Amino acid sequence: MMQANKTAFPENFLWGSASAAYQVEGAWDADGKGPSIWDEFVKVPGTTYKNTNGDVAVDHYHHLEEDVRLMAEMGLKTYRFSIAWARIFPSSMDEVNQKGLDFYHKLIDLCLENNIEPMVTIYHWDLPLFLQQKYRGWESREVIADFKKYAVTLFEAYGSKVKYWITINEQNIFTRMGWMTAQHPPKMSSEEKLYYQVNHNVFLAHAEAVLAFQDLVPGGMIGASFALHPSYAIDCKPENVVAKMDYDDLKNYWWMDVYAHGRYPKAAMKYLQTKGVAPEFEPGDAELLAEAAKHVDFMGVNYYRSDVVEYNPLDGVDSSGVFNTTGEKGSMTIPGVPGLYKNPLNSNLPTTDWDWTIDPIGIRIGCRDITSRYNLPIIISENGLGAFDTLEEDGSIHDPYRITYLAEHLKEIKLAIEEGSEVLAYCTWSFTDLLSWLNGYQKRYGFVYVDQYEEAVEPSLKRYKKDSYYWYKDIIASDGETLF
Hints:
- By secondary structure, the protein is α/β, with parallel strands linked by helices.
- The chain has one domain (about 15-484): TIM Barrel (Alpha-Beta Barrel), CATH 3.20.20.80.
- About 40% of the residues lie in helices and about 15% in strands.
- The strands form three sheets. The protein has an eight-stranded parallel β-barrel, surrounded by six helices. A four-stranded mixed beta sheet has the order 6-8-10-9, covered by helices on one side.
- A hairpin with a 3-residue loop joins strand 9 and strand 10 (about 340).
- The protein starts with 13 loop residues before the first strand and ends in a 7-residue tail after the last helix.
- The model has no long low-confidence stretch (mean pLDDT about 95).
């Protein structure tokens, strides 16, 4: 359904960029902040690339004014950031750390003073360590009440100043890598029954926050951000088409159906019940999920890549292979679920150095699918290219590959809008370079280069504008017209 209309993006479109507290803030124990599960996890040798950690990250905590000034100079319309739960509740859910609240007040106020709409993510993977030690965090239903209390604290503190809220970031990623592949805390593998129960607990926590939000932030908008991987059957063989359906139910709709409809996909639930690994419901759970879904205002989408799906026999590959964290292209192995599907590389698409397919049309496919299935507005909460960037002697950074990547994705988003999708915002990942979780600091995503090397004892943390910084500034100023 290609359209000839090449006008600018909708009026009041939120041109944005994003970050996460653990990946940018540093100051891991400053001003009363307590440790998170990531502060502990990264200290275990071999968990991250070259044992990098977020103790300093890019020190956004102490470079706050400079970073917001750079955003304002770019003309950014929205800045999506997360709040560190352990900065607000460092060691107990009974005592709030006022200095933690004050830091985010300062960030929000700086954004508003510079006409930047703050967009808050409540949880971006950094659970307070004391909750993990107390009852194993997301594995216990106790976390539901604690998350609600944390969310309510934020709504009461910032609700008069922040309109856009994201409850949970990439629930499908942190649960899979925490309980199935042992790559994230709590570093467990193949705990399938527990994995689905953890997800159920997260859904309930999300639901409680959504319902509390209605009274505390009138006029606000709330949703969750999901790591969307649109899929293609490898060919038209019926078994591969069915494999794609299985993949979509278990890897995409399992989460989005709950956020938007308040229920799990039937075929997927039946499959998990047959295996004996389906989540267990307590009285009131189904009603809570259904009621919260009525009040979700948008679907948040983090989009980086699509997947190819092929039938996987019972003796086929599983998810225990190699995940590329080094940037050595071609080192990632094919993951899958025996008896259902596997995900070979798409031979029709290029890949990044980390073996992620580059598929701009996939973001349009995802928007259309969400529009048709859920009829919800969409916030693109993350989209970006991780790459090796080079700081030249004159302080310039030439990243035409990033400009091309973002431009092609924006063109597809514009087409999705013309086809009927309501896209409210587009947030690149990321504004500054940052710690890329398992991948260290060499995998750079930002418009702003930060002199932070994993080998350096005392990196300068100096900020440099990349070519993509100036490009995005022009895109924002023209409301996207210069794309065409």
